[in-house]
Write a structure and sequence with these properties.
By secondary structure, the chain is an alpha+beta fold. The chain has helices spanning 48-103, 108-136, 253-287, 399-406, 495-500, 506-513, 522-530, 534-541, and strands at 6-8, 14-17, 22-27, 30-35, 43-46, 149-154, 160-165, 170-176, 182-189, 194-200, 205-210, 214-219, 300-304, 309-316, 326-332, 337-341, 349-352, 360-364, 372-377, 381-386, 391-397, 413-419, 422-427, 432-439, 442-443, 447-450, 455-462, 465-470, 474-481, 484-489, 503-505. Residues 72-106 have a biased composition (Basic and acidic residues).
Length: 542
């Protein structure tokens, strides 16, 4: 059996705090901060679950080695004894058969009875051995998901950092001191794993989308005066804590009695939920694990979708007479891009941007051209939109460039970031960065910058300086000098951060970091393979 290749988990998600000159890089369950100028890390925040796993590894290694040493000799002796017993039993069961052949047909009935009895005994013995083997078989522990930060965002003033840990579906908010150090301010667990986050309403509200189609609005900094009770839990978000009616709005005696009964019912329901919560906490403590936290935080469900969401951004429309209105733009696996108003009027759908034939994985808007949106995913092209009017302006082929340089048969765009009219694009599994320049309403033919490995994350320092996290090569600076781009590795080497990085197999790394291509529907590939090419059509016509 071939040995599994084990390596350090690489950096994945990147985000630049422009106001502070700090780059935040994700590595598993860690958020590591660097100065954009380079050098070793200046601070690290580690997810509590990763700390637990790191502490448990040496203990489990010692326990497993001691158990093997203690059990190895008895198991060998036991196995030898069982083999001797089986051979003795086999001889006993074979004796009646040899005697039956010698005595002849007169004692056939007696021999048959003996054989059936022996078979029953052998069957019972086999069943007992199977039960013993099941009891002696070591129980396999349930393997926990590896802690990993999947999303990251920073406010424009650099004072707060928002992160999402995918394995426990939690949104974290940190206070940033401006020098790379993070201090936790809040921890809120969502019912489903968020797949996209954005900041709205002057960056006071977090917009969080999950793959099940729901989009929630949460305050960046939760208030300490949040009312307690089931009304603010995501599980019962549609239930009220108190009746909508009051004694001032109800006048008849019958309605007053009904109102009092409704109040008693709600009080009993709240008491029952508190008791159930206490029972869950007690059971978790007795089992030695952390109790699941009830989502008792301020929130609101603002959007719903039928399709699986893949990305969300907040855009600002143009307005001459008043401040620009905010819009929530969502992308999904079913080729849709939807434009909705931001809260409190999120129920108003402004339009759809429809032209993709495969999944949409990423959206981008350049702050210098806020009326233009660029989208990409599993299609061969990158799309340019007038998103306010749901109008497709142009599309630019990128698959042909990837095929020419790297032999790619299909692409899965994982991320697009924009700066100064340039859209920097990376694709899953293709060791290159593509640069597309916005010229009017179209994108130029992509410029290709080969990389030493597969890019996993990208962040813009400025229009001539880009940082890319590369699988197997750490953080890499890509700097423009004149008209050429130079790839500079080794600017962010940190032996301490490398030593703390968790080890993963290639299969685990693929599952954790290479997830975009998996959104492609198998039926799309099948239908594409069934389409006739030009030669087939010409033959059919003749």
């Amino acid at each position: 059996m071939a040995e599994k290749t084990v390596s350090k988990l690489p950096y994945s998600y990147l985000f630049n705090s422009h106001s502070n000159g700090v780059i935040f890089a994700v590595r598993g369950g860690q958020i590591i901060s660097f100065m954009t100028s380079g050098g070793p890390s200046i601070s690290r925040w580690t997810h509590p679950d990763q700390l637990k796993m790191t502490e448990a590894e040496p203990v489990s290694a010692k326990r497993s080695s001691s158990q093997i040493n203690q059990k190895e000799a008895p198991e060998v002796a036991k196995e030898t004894t069982e083999n001797l017993e089986r051979s003795t039993k086999r001889q006993r069961t074979e004796e009646p058969e040899s005697k039956a052949a010698e005595e002849g047909s007169k004692e056939a009935g007696i021999i048959d009875d003996g054989q059936s009895e022996t078979a029953e005994i052998a069957t019972l013995m086999t069943a007992n051995e199977q039960k013993k083997n099941k009891k002696n078989k070591p129980q396999t522990a349930v393997q926990q998901d590896k802690p990993i930060i999947t999303l990251l965002s920073v406010t424009s003033d650099g004072k707060h950092v928002v992160a999402v840990s995918g394995h426990d579906k939690t949104i974290w908010v940190f206070e940033h001191d401006g020098r790379g150090k993070l201090m936790q301010r809040s921890k809120r667990t969502m019912p489903k794993r968020p797949c996209g986050i954005a900041l709205a309403q002057d960056e006071r509200t977090i917009i969080a989308a999950d793959k099940f189609g729901d989009v929630y609005a949460l305050p960046l900094l939760p208030s300490d005066a949040v009312a307690k009770g089931p009304t603010l839990t995501l599980a019962v978000k549609h239930k009220r804590e108190t009746p909508a009616a009051t004694p001032l709005t109800v006048h008849s005696a019958g309605n007053l009695r009904a109102l009092e009964a409704q109040k008693r019912h709600m009080a009993e329901r709240q008491k029952q939920q508190e008791q159930e919560r206490a029972a869950v906490v007690a059971a978790a403590r007795s089992a030695g694990v952390d109790a699941p936290e009830a989502p008792m935080f301020e929130h609101s469900l603002v959007l719903g979708h039928v399709s699986m969401l893949t990305d969300v951004i907040v855009a600002r429309g143009s307005s001459q007479n008043q401040s620009p209105r905010e819009f929530i733009i969502t992308a999904d696996r079913d080729e849709h891009i939807r434009v909705s108003r931001a809260p409190p009027h999120a129920y108003v759908i402004e339009g759809f941007c429809l032209a993709h034939k495969d999944f949409v994985s990423t959206l981008a808007i350049d702050e210098n051209r806020p009326e233009i949106m660029v989208s990409a995913g599993g299609d061969a092209e990158v799309f340019v939109w007038d998103w306010q009017n749901s109008e497709l302006l142009s599309r630019t082929e990128i698959l042909s460039v990837a095929k020419e340089h790297f032999g790619a048969e299909k692409i899965a765009v994982s991320k697009i970031v924009a700066a100064a009219g340039q859209f920097f694009t990376i694709c899953e599994g293709i060791p290159a960065m593509f640069i597309l320049t916005l010229e009017g309403k179209t994108l130029s033919t992509p410029s290709t910058i080969p990389l030493p490995g597969n890019p996993l994350g990208i962040a813009i320092v400025d229009a001539s300086h880009v940082l890319v996290s590369i699988d197997g090569h750490g953080l890499t600076s890509i700097v423009k000098s004149g008209i050429t781009w130079a790839v500079n590795s080794g600017d962010f080497e940190d032996s301490n951060a490398d030593a703390e990085a968790p080890e993963v197999t290639d299969t685990e790394k693929q599952k954790l970091l290479y997830t975009v291509e998996s959104m492609r529907k198998k039926v799309v590939d099948f239908l594409a393979s069934q389409e006739p090419n030009a030669e087939d059509l010409s033959i059919a016509e003749t």
